[in-house]
Structure formats: structure tokens, C-alpha cells
Amino acid sequence: MRPSLTPRGLLLAGLAFALPVVLIVVPLAIFVVYSFFSVDHGTMVYTPTLANYGRFFTDPVFIPVLVTTCILCVSVAVICVVVGYPVAYFLASLRGRWRYTLLLLMLVPLLMSYVIKIYAIRSILGQNGFLNAALMTLGIIDKPSSLFVFNLNAVLLALTLLLIPFAILPIFLSLERIPGNLLQASYDLGATGTQTFLRVTLPLSLPGVASAASFVFVLAIGDFLTPQMVGGTSSFTFSRIIYSQFGAAFNWPFGAALSIVLAIVVILAILVGERFGQQEAAR
Amino acid sequence: MSESRELLALRSVSKSYGQVPVLHGVDLSIRDGEFLAVLGPSGSGKTTVLRLIGGLESVSSGAIYLDGRDISAVPINRRPFNTVFQDYALFPHMSVAANVGYGLSVRGRPKAEIGKKVAEALDLVQLGAFANRQPAQLSGGQRQRVALARALICEPRLVLLDEPLAALDLMLRRQMQEFLKSIQREIRTTFLFVTHDQEEAIALGDRICVMEGGYIRQIGTPHTLYYRPNCPFVARFFGDNNLVPGTLGAVDGDLRAIDTALGRLVCSTGGDTALMQAPEGTAAFAAFRPEALRPAVEDDVNRFSGTLSEISFHGAATIAHVATTPGDVRLRLRLASQVEGIALGEGETLALGFSPAQSHLVLA
Amino acid sequence: MTASLRPASLFLALVTALVGIVLYCPLLVPILSSFFTVTHGQADWSSPTFAAYVALAQNDDILSALRATMIVGFSTVVLSVSIGTLLALYHNGRGAGAALLQFLVFLPFLMPPIITGLALLIFFREVEFPRSLVTVVIGHTVFVLAIVYRTVLTRLRSLSKTLVEASLDLGASRWQTFWRVILPNIAGAMAGGAVLAFALSFDETMITILVTGTTSTLPVRLWAMMRLGFSPDINALVALVLMFTILLCILAARLLMPAKDRAAH
């Protein structure tokens, strides 16, 4: 049955689309248009220009920051997947109630207050934090280390800690979907446990890995609070620069242009994740 | 049966989904009080016929008449028909009693009346003790009976059943077939039953309507369809059959000759005018059931020799594959099983035959 | 897949336990700190105290932020559940452009919150809509709509299409069918979506920072305070918020789990 284009159908469609268009499409459209405006001494200039994009490509600051940020977020994604995979595998290997109870336990931290988690991470990582105290008590170091204090390392660690659950869930779901009889068939054909894992389980769980990685990457690259809170003044990430355009720098059109660049990166990441996941699933 | 009046009629009803036609100008007449089985393979359009009658879909062209009145435009909830769905479609959030009483409740009938009728309907399907259960607590067969009670409670003119037994296992299915038949006799309501299982259609239907590819191929009693199929499709679809292609020869009373790879055979036309009047040389099939084939007797007109292979025991019957001389035609032969085993062995060659009365011609 | 006590499984269990500990560490620190005095990373374990909780009860600033958070949360729930359910029904009813609609609804959820937030910020400025808790509610609704929409749509799709047909077939009107068959069957999903929406709204920080006016919600207040360092009463609040969130999680799990059991039949 094809959607009806009767007057009643059109009216319904109009009603259904009204809110999403007003509150989602229009703001995003204005946002895109804004990126072609400019600011002159604190006043908006509503003449279309490509200057904002020009500045992004020519100014020596922005592209390196974008590259650094991408490397940071890819690292976060890789660490999350590497750590999350064994956890997901273990959870999927459990039976009955334990499986979902433990999964839920792993996911509960997601729903816990974001600001509080950052705060706690900061108090753990800080110069006078629990980590340094513990390491000193254990005699591993003799004076507080500043390796994880207000720098990109701290941002990397904090983002990883915040986002691991987002990696566990999709991997778990893809592992759970693998029919048990496939593994039995593999054993039946004489494969060892390791062979079965490498040649059956791992390839079949790659779509989950792909979506986990793109998920974590997207969430990490859009976060402008964590870098600000644990990264100190020196570690600028791309989202932080965008945010500053709407605060101290007060250049909304340029901020909008940078946001468009960010959106393109995010869309690419989602597409790559999806593409990779589907290809593997089709095999 | 034949004198009972017409309840419902489809007149050149067609249905397409987008560009895809699924029914081509179907004519069907349903008689008051009969149990009509609509039989066909998947994709034959049988379920579409049911959905069109029930009002779940609308006709693309043609019309549906109830008591001679065009009801094609009457919406589903105003048609005096009720459906038993293939997946039963019991409301999961309602008790058995609430499910059965739903049709009365939405019509705003008083509670007391609903309670009384629900109890009656549940008694009819022998589920009186289950009124307060939830559908999830019932077995497949019980759910099926709840769905039936729910469809019967509004006293519909016609009950539509969409493969209601398909999800049940074989034993339960046999029981439910008898149960359905007995209920239909008890309440004397017209039933239209869609199935892909020809045994089920034979067991249940007063008449059977065979469909294929969006066309109705033949409508008739199970006996007629079994012994007098009007086309190769029905002849093959309806039970095991031997079909030997050939060309028609001379007419001789009710019989007619056909030239085949087995030589000249003589088969019954059943008095069918199309078969009698078809010119000589017309392509046709000689059709005879495996149980009609047997070791030849003295004055058999249809006589040839065959070599047996693959003899297999099927309980009451034993079935053998036959390769004929002349022609090397592959046939199947069905014999009543014997305690001591049948007297024939694999590889044995013997004279075979069948009587013209036990055979039938089918136009190709 | 079965877990046996092979070395590999033992290793996996160990990794899982470690990750669990690491995930829960940031949650435990403030809870412990709310009962014990902490100086320079060293807790004074000898004297547990409720002083922090007493101080919290007197902190009007935090309490008003908490009140604002609750108001925003409930408004968001009401708006997102009603709009999300209607849109899901439209989608499931094969309305025109359903795929496009789904894409639009998902955009704010897929895009980084900074983009959603900034787009709304500029939008509100352009239509000269003053920033307040109302703009926060709009921002949250746009953000969580996708969750409610998806939850309800998934349940609608899991409902057999023949349920609606059966209802109509038995003589019910479209309206009766909605109230007596569809709504009771999606109520659980709506409630689960509502709890998720509330949990997301309760914790939403990034969009809120961008679209909020002078009064703001708890996470944003906390964020502002964090730069100065937290007083002990904040730890007490954190402990309470965590307990509340755990309760919400259990509730959401309860509401969404039975659907799974039902689907198994």
C-alpha cells in the first residue's frame, strides 16, 4: 500500500511534519545560513560571504586542532572498543539472569550524572587526587605525577571512562545475535576455540564493533565540556573552539561555519560506521 | 446443497497492489449454510479473496454482493462477517472473556447480556473454565477456539477462517478439523475457510474452490475435484495422480480415446461437453490415480507393461514407481498393504492396466 | 556460548570486573566523600557524618536548581511522550514521508549536542524568543523525542497488524480500536520512554548550557560551581542524585522488560 495523497492524508502529513520542521529543520537551516554571514566590531553583517570557511582553511590554527581532535577521538574509540569487546564477549557468554543483570550494571553508569562523573574523574586524576595518593601509598611514585593533570591525556582518559558503556552495548548486541549453532558447527568441523573465535565470532561481531566505534567517536568529538573541565587551559579541542566563538570570541557566524565542518566529520563517521557494519553483515 | 440460496457473490472481482495484479476477475458464489474451502498454493490469491470479503482490503474492480446488495463500499466494521485470523490476533492485554465479548462490548451492549453470551460462546468451544485466563496462558489449540468463539459471538452471516489450523501440529489439527466441522453443523452458519492443505480442504469443505495465480481454476465437491479435475493444475494439486500427455482420438459414448506414449488409451470424459466436442488431435492428458493402476486383467483396453522400482511402505498403502514399456513413462502405483508384504518385488516387470471408468481426460 | 572455567574465561571475567570497578569509581568517590571529611585525597574514615546532608537542606541555590530540573523534566516528558507517540502512530500508519520524518526526528539525537544546542540558540535569537526554562524544555524535547518515538514505534511494530484488523472486524470503530486495543498495548512502551526521557532531561548539560536563561537546571548549576570546587553539601546532593537515578533505571528496566517477555511468546 502506498501512502495516500488524499486531502486527509496531506492534512495528516502536514500536522505530523509541522513540529519537526519548525523545531528541527528551520533551526538547522538558519544555522547553515548563519555560517555565511560575518561579524564586524560586534555587529552581525547579513551579507553572504565564504570568508568563514576561507578562514578555517587558511588560518594555521583550526585544521591542526581538528586533526588533533580527530586523533584524540579515534584513540578514545579504539580504547573503548578494545576494552569493551572482552567485556561484551564475557557478558554474552553468560547464561540466564546473570547476562542481563551484569549488562545492566555496566550500563547504569551511563545514566548517572555527567557533570558529577567529570567532577569525580577530576578529583581522582588531579594533582592531589585519589590516583596520585594511591600510587604514592603503594610506593610506585614518590611525588604527585602531573601526567594526567589538565592535559590531553586527562581528556583522553576521562572521555574513555565516560564512553566505555556505549561501546559495550552494540558489541554485546551483535555477539548475542550470533546463533549458537554456528559456533557448534564450527567446533563440529574441527575448529579449535581460537579458530572459531577468529573465523566465526569475530567477523560476525564486526558490525557491532563498527557501530560501537562510530558511536563513541561521534559522542567524543561533540563533547565540549569534558575537555574544558579536565583539559585545563592548554588542551583545545575542536568543539571547545566552537563553543568559545559563542562566548568569549563572540563570532557566531564563524562558530556556525566551524560547526558545519564538525557536522560533516560526524556524518562521515556515522556513514563509515554504517557502511562497514553493513558490508560485514551482508557476507 | 444445490437448492440453498446464494448468500454472497463476487462478480468479476480484481485486485492489484500497485502495478501487481493478484486477482483477475474472479467470480464466486457462496451458498447460505455451506462450508466452502478456498484452496490454493501460496500466492494463488486465496487470502486476498478472504480479505476482500471481510473488508480488510478494497476491490480494485468488480463488486461483492450480500443478499444481492452491493457491499463493496461498506467498511470492515459494518460488514456482518467475522474473521478467525491465522495468528488468532487475540488481544494480549485482555482476558479470554474480554476477548470473546469485545464485539458486543464495542457495540455498547449491556454487561449482563455480554456476560451471558460470552459464557454461551465459551461453552460452545468447550472453554467454559478458561474465561479468566490471559491469552498467553493458553495452548495453540485453545487460542484457536477462543478466536472462533470471538468471531461467532456477533452471530455473523459468514465466518471467514484464514488458515486457522496452519500453526497447529498434525494431531491437534485433525481434532480441530472435526471440531470446526461439528460446530459449523451445530450453528448452521456459512463458513469460508482458506487453506493450502488439500487434505484439510477435502475433510472440511462441502465445496472446494481451487485457486492458482489469481484465478479460480475449479469449484466443486471434493469428489468432483478428485475424480473429475478440469485442468492439469487441479489434477496434479489434488492428491497423487498419473498424468500422461497425448492427443484426443475418437469419441465412444462417455469414453474417448487418447494417443499417448503408452499407446492408445481409452478414458472417461465424465460427460463433459468440452471434452466430448474438442476436435481430434487436441492436446490432453489421460489422468488416473495411482490406486486405479493395477496388474492387468483379461480384457483390459488400457494395457501396457511396466518395471517396478522404489517400492515403499506408507502404512495402509504401498507405493511403487513404474517405468512403462512402451514409452518409458514414469507412473506411480498404489496397492493396499498386506501383513506378509505385497507380492511384487523391485525390478519385476509385469503387465499393468486400468479401467476407463477409473480414469479421466483433462484438456491441456 | 557457555562459560567454562578455562583460563580465557577467567581472563575475560577479570577484565569485566576491572572495567566495572573503573566505571563505578567516579560514582563512589562523591558518595564516600559525602559521609567522610576528605582532605588532600585522604579520607578521614574514623568519623562518618551527615553534616553534608544537613548543609544541603539549607542550600537554597541548589534546591531551586533542583526544582527547576524537575519542572523541566516533567514538561519534557509530557511533551516528548505525546508528540513522540503521535509521530510513531503516524509512521506506523504508513503516513506519507514516514522515513523522512524519522530522519528529521533523529537528527538532533545523532548530531553532536553542541550543534543541536547552537542551532536552537540562534533560532531563538532570530525569532526573538527570550531564553528561559521554556527554551530549555523545547531543547530537551527536541533532543529526547527520538528516544520516545523509537520506543513506541518498536512496540507498535511488534504488535501484530492483525490485532487492529481483528478489532475492526469485530465491529469497533477506529477510535474504539485506538483506545481499547492500541493504547493499552503501547502504554508500557510510553511509560518506559517517559522514564528514559526524564532521565536524559535530568542529566542534559550541553544543550541546556547553550539555550538556558538566568534560572537553570541542576547539571548546569553544578557545572558552574565545579570550576570553583565543590562544597561537601554538593557531595551529599550527588549521592542523592545517584540513588534517584538508580531508582529510575530500575523503573525503566521494569517497564521495558515485560515487553521482551511478551514478545517471546
TrEMBL record, chain A:
It is a multi-pass membrane protein. It comes from the Bacteria. GO terms for biological process: transmembrane transport. This is Spermidine/putrescine transport system permease protein. InterPro entries: MetI-like, MetI-like_sf. It comes from Kaistia hirudinis. The chain crosses the membrane at residues 12-37, 61-88, 100-121, 154-175, 196-221, 252-273. Keywords: Cell membrane, Membrane, Transmembrane, Transmembrane helix, Transport. Belongs to the binding-protein-dependent transport system permease family. CysTW subfamily. It is found in: Cell membrane. One of its GO terms (cellular component) is plasma membrane. PANTHER family: INNER MEMBRANE ABC TRANSPORTER PERMEASE PROTEIN YDCU-RELATED, INNER MEMBRANE ABC TRANSPORTER PERMEASE PROTEIN YDCU-RELATED-RELATED. Residues 66-273 form the ABC transmembrane type-1 domain. Gene3D superfamilies: MetI-like.
TrEMBL record, chain B:
Gene3D superfamilies: 2.40.50.100, P-loop containing nucleotide triphosphate hydrolases. GO terms for biological process: putrescine transport. The keyword 4Fe-4S does not apply. It comes from the Bacteria. SUPFAM superfamilies: MOP-like (SSF50331), P-loop containing nucleoside triphosphate hydrolases (SSF52540). The keyword Repeat does not apply. This is Spermidine/putrescine transport system ATP-binding protein. Belongs to the ABC transporter superfamily. It comes from Kaistia hirudinis. Keywords: ATP-binding, Nucleotide-binding, Transport. GO terms for cellular component: ATP-binding cassette (ABC) transporter complex. It holds the Pfam family TOBE_2. GO terms for molecular function: ATP binding; ATP hydrolysis activity; transmembrane transporter activity. Residues 8-238 form the ABC transporter domain.
UniProtKB/TrEMBL annotation, chain C:
It is found in: Cell membrane. The chain crosses the membrane at residues 65-89, 101-123, 129-149, 181-200, 236-257. Keywords: Cell membrane, Membrane, Transmembrane, Transmembrane helix, Transport. Residues 66-252 form the ABC transmembrane type-1 domain. It is a multi-pass membrane protein. SUPFAM superfamilies: MetI-like (SSF161098). Its main location: membrane. CDD domains: TM_PBP2 (cd06261). GO terms for cellular component: plasma membrane. InterPro entries: Bact_Polyamine_Transport, MetI-like, MetI-like_sf. It comes from the Bacteria. PANTHER family: PUTRESCINE TRANSPORT SYSTEM PERMEASE PROTEIN POTI. Belongs to the binding-protein-dependent transport system permease family. CysTW subfamily. This is Putative spermidine/putrescine transport system permease protein/spermidine/putrescine transport system permease protein. It comes from Kaistia hirudinis.
